[in-house]
Design a protein that fits this description.
five-stranded antiparallel sheet; 25 helices; about 35% helix
């Protein structure tokens, strides 16, 4: 009975191959059979940082096209030797191989071997399934004949090497070389090439990640066949077998591919759609088209951003007796051209997918005050303009009760110059200024500098009574760092197709939106925040010329830090996704350390330099109490302040406006000695203001104060302000009652860590 079965099986196989031969003959001779689909394999898109180094890839099938001339000969020979050693001698179907396969199939009474050539495997990989049945085999052979008619042997080999599957989502030899050895196919050794050539026979079995012994045994088979075919010598075989394999650390590679995940996903989901508005399916372009996307991301800055969020923002905080999770976002941009250098949208992109850096609209707190002060400078205010921190009340048509901003703990500070009000983050002075110039001025300035969210010209606007994103705040602060020039945020510099053809090239968009002198004055006043004000614990961490502003919303639901150097502007937001309060948390205490440590690490290899000073500024000594020209008889030491030429004060401080001046301004008075003052003594003249030459911003030393002790900030006075949530009338406003700031750096608090 067994003999009858065997004979029947042999007859069936003979009939099968006769039928296949007939089909092949028809395929060659019948008109129209030469038309086959174009070979359009799905390709992997690659994303590069601003230095041209690969960040990550995106694909449906991880595949890269590599020309045959860039593939090492020994890799191609390895595949030919082990898969189809008569490749260059047959016309797609190897009859000897078929007979061998038929005999083996008869012996095992199943389709154990198909006798497929490289061309047949290519036909199957491109157009067919991997089912083992007579119909699929017939289709495969017909397509094989057509491939041989249409392409040269080298073209077939190139397509085969670029499409064959190697396991672990790797298609083609380039993807396989990167997956297993972390290198390009051009850099493979003979031993590594033999490993790869052995995998396609059974990726789940011969993968060196899954079964290293099986992979090594298969490598030996491949190398032996290469010796038999004359491609290598026996000595080369032994050397290749002795080579120690250095496989890629898969977990490390996975972690490395996660760098900048929020950045890349925003690029795919938003920015590339803007770049290719006429493309109906941008996702297909990315996941199948083999694009090369050159981004603005800076790898060092991105790593510093992710480390800062992970290391300096706690995962939870106490609220109403419970631990609540807190999230963070960070955006950093080059203020010169708008290149986004780093972006973190949360703690874990995979876990939530929500990008808080570009999509979370929350209150910016007191960081919004700077738009009011910039508008005020345009209206003729100066850094020495004095307003009194005192109880005030304003009618607000949008609320059912008066708007009454308060300082922290209701402790008002009295007269404050604009510089002091910024450093101390006075809510009352900000609102007074806001209402004096008109709320529309603050709104217009914010929109002019880069805020795109809808704003309402309410009295509370200057205190953060609106909702914006960290990307908007970063963009809007950039003109302060860039002599008044607004730049459009950029994520991409260039996009090419798989053949290197340029599809898009970015052009920086710059617009002068603010007087360079006002930009400098704003920067100089915000320097005081990091020297003597609410962020004075942060300046020594950054340890280079920098400016910035802290912000805290009502009930500490949102805390902010926005700051910059000439090279980099960044914003950090910290809060809870459910908008829960974070009692006791402040911008300087929670967002500030992440910002300061990020800036230090991101700029670690960049020489420090100060902000360039434009033409048209003067330097004048003023009374620290009144902001007027300093009277030599005033008992207060004068301070030096910058002014736009023509706006400097012209009158000296005197009693009663300045209580530190003598009440009797007559030259007849005691001189503190035993004799009368000389009545003919001439009083010193008020010095002319010093006209300052432009400063080119060359690097200057920026050392820690001599009395800096490097301690932690356990005893450091905390953030100084609270502002409001949008449009809520029952808010608490104010800031900590800081000691009066001086012109010199006050003794810094210990470094926040």
């Amino acid at each position: 009975m067994r003999r009858v079965t065997r004979i029947a099986f042999i007859i069936a196989m003979v009939v099968f191959f006769l039928a296949v031969g007939t089909v092949g003959f028809l395929a060659v001779t019948v008109a129209g059979m030469g038309d086959i689909p174009d070979i359009q394999p799905q390709l992997t898109s690659t994303f590069y940082d601003h230095n041209g180094e690969i960040i990550t890839t995106r694909f449906e099938q991880n595949r890269f096209e590599v020309p045959l001339e860039q593939i090492p000969d020994y890799l191609a020979h390895a595949f030919i030797a082990v898969e189809d050693h008569r490749f260059y001698n047959h016309h797609g179907i190897d009859m000897q191989g078929l007979m061998r396969a038929m005999v083996r199939n008869v012996q095992q009474r199943r389709f154990a071997e198909g006798g497929s050539t490289i061309t047949q495997q290519l036909a199957r990989n491109l157009f067919l399934t991997h089912d083992k049945n007579l119909t699929r085999k017939a289709q495969e052979m017909m397509l094989t004949v057509q491939l041989e008619r249409r392409f040269t042997k080298d073209e077939i080999l190139e397509n085969y090497l670029n499409t064959i599957y190697f396991g672990h989502s790797a298609y083609g030899v380039e993807a396989a070389a990167r997956t297993y050895f972390g290198k390009s196919v051009q850099d493979l050794t003979l031993g590594e090439a033999a490993i790869l050539a052995g995998i396609p026979r059974g990726p789940a079995y011969y993968s060196p990640y899954l079964n290293l012994d099986a992979a090594k045994n298969r490598q030996a088979v491949v190398l032996t066949r290469m010796v038999d075919e004359g491609y290598i010598t026996e000595a080369q075989r032994e050397e290749a077998l002795a080579q120690e394999l250095e496989l890629t650390d898969r977990e490390a590679a996975r972690q490395d591919r996660q760098l900048g995940a929020y950045f890349i996903n925003h690029l795919i989901n938003s920015e590339l759609a803007k770049i290719f508005p006429d493309e109906p399916n941008v996702a297909n372009m990315i996941y199948q088209g083999g694009l090369h996307v050159y981004t603005t991301l800076d790898r060092q800055a991105q790593q510093a951003a992710e480390n800062a969020v992970a290391g300096f923002v706690p995962e939870t905080t106490r609220s109403n007796g419970e631990d609540i999770p807190i999230q963070a976002a960070l955006v950093a941009m080059d203020p010169q051209d708008g290149s986004v250098r780093a972006l973190v949208g949360g703690r874990d992109q995979v876990a939530t997918g929500f990008n808080r850096a570009v999509s979370a609209r929350r209150s910016p707190g007191s960081t919004f005050k700077m738009f009011t002060y910039a508008a005020a400078l345009e209206e003729g205010y100066t850094p020495s303009t004095v307003r009194v921190s005192e109880p005030v009340s304003y009618e607000d048509p949008h609320q059912d009760r008066p708007f009454e901003p308060r300082e922290f703990n209701n402790q008002f500070s009295g007269p404050l110059r604009m510089r002091e009000a910024i450093a101390r983050s006075s809510n009352v002075v900000a609102v007074k200024t806001h209402m004096e110039i008109g709320p529309e001025k603050t709104k217009e300035m914010a929109e002019r500098l880069g805020i795109t969210s809808e704003l309402q010209a309410y009295p509370s606007l200057t205190l953060g009574g609106t909702s914006v994103t960290p990307l908007e705040m970063t963009t809007a602060y950039a003109p302060f760092a860039n002599q008044g020039i607004r730049v459009q945020p950029q994520f991409v510099t260039k996009v090419t197709d798989s053949n290197g053809r340029i599809l898009y090239r970015a052009e920086p968009r710059r617009e002068q939106v603010l007087d360079a002198r006002i930009s400098f004055l704003m920067t100089d006043m915000m320097k005081s925040v990091l020297q003597t004000g609410t962020g004075r614990s942060l300046g020594p961490i950054v340890n280079r010329p920098a400016a910035g502003k802290t912000g805290t919303s009502q009930d500490s639901r949102d805390v902010y830090m926005v700051g910059y150097t000439p090279e980099l502007v960044s914003a950090v937001w910290v809060g809870n996704d459910d908008n829960l309060p974070m009692p006791g948390q402040t911008g300087s205490g929670l967002a500030g350390p992440a910002w300061a440590n990020f800036m230090r690490e991101a700029l670690r290899d960049v020489p420090a330099r100060d902000f360039a000073r434009p033409d048209g500024l003067v330097s004048v000594q003023v009374c620290p109490d009144t902001g007027m020209l300093h009277n030599p008889r005033c008992s207060l030491d004068p301070i030096t302040e910058f002014f736009i030429a023509g706006t400097q004060p012209t009158e000296q401080c005197s009693w009663p406006e300045c209580e530190h001046c003598p009440q009797d301004d007559s030259p007849w008075h005691w001189d503190g000695g035993w004799f009368w003052r000389n009545p003919f003594r001439q009083e010193p003249e008020t010095p002319e203001p010093e006209v300052l030459p432009p400063d080119n911003g060359l690097p200057e030393d920026w050392d820690l104060p001599e009395d800096w002790n490097g301690e932690n900030e356990e005893n450091m006075p905390q953030e100084d302000e609270e502002t409001i949530e949008p449009w809520e009338p029952d808010f608490e406003e104010g800031q900590e009652d800081l000691p009066p700031p001086s012109d010199e750096n006050s003794e810094p608090a210990a470094q926040a860590i």
